[in-house]
Specification:
Shape: globular
Structural class: alpha/beta
Order of helices and strands: EEHEHHEEHEEHEHEHHHHEE
Number of helices: 10
Largest sheet: 6 strands, mixed
Radius of gyration: 19 Å
Strand content: 15-25%
Number of strands: 11
Length: 271
Amino acid sequence: MSAILTEIRDHVRFITLNRPERHNAFDDAVIQELTAAFETAATEPNLRAVVLDSLGRSFSAGADINWMRRMADYDRDRNLSDARTLARLMQAIDTCPRPVVGVVQGAAYGGGVGLAACCDLVVAAKESVFCLSEVKIGIIPAVISPYVMRSIGVPAARRYFLTAEVIPAVTAKEIGLVHEVVPAEDLVTTRDRWLSALKANSPHAVTAAKGLVARLAPIDAAMIEWTAERIADLRASEQGQEGLKAFLDRRKPSWNQTPVKSGGRLAMKAP
């Protein structure tokens, strides 16, 4: 079964994550397949828009756990190579000359938040949640950070990059990560309304308008490479290795201290 489904309907390329049993988590193979789909969409004639969606309960859980198990044995160079591969995917979505509509029907974690942030328009179901969970396992949302920060701004990034709090869909709209929040049964209606609006406009002008935004809020090659190097450094670090192993072992990492109430005061309880 293919991890990515693609088809063209009425001058729209639909790219669908098709790993519902894995919560649409991705590994290196899925990233390459998804990148190829967007790079192909960028060159297809007469295409007016691209839709990125997924099947199942979750939009995308980010990194696949089996891929994370393999990462545990990677050195810095291999981690850097993987980070560059993910960076190429984010760039392919972000720079696609066709407008990209993201449809989020469930949870988006880690890299899944990055996928949403790279879309031009995002509609989310009311039940959807988002989470930049990387710091919980000793790393950072490095490769996706330029796109996420461009969407949510510095104040929200200061909060959610650091706390790894779960972000409800309504809050995601308030901070700019999504554009509309609707009942799940209205996702397709909202998507199609946007597609109709896009098709009513000049194709060349829409592409130029997207390029205008990119020029005014640039994400350059140096920034992309720096973020890839940062995540490679942290994955290979002592705490990055500890965080990943703790996650895979289903235990708390060594630095985790849970606050508990003791005699009306907050005390720290070691795991």
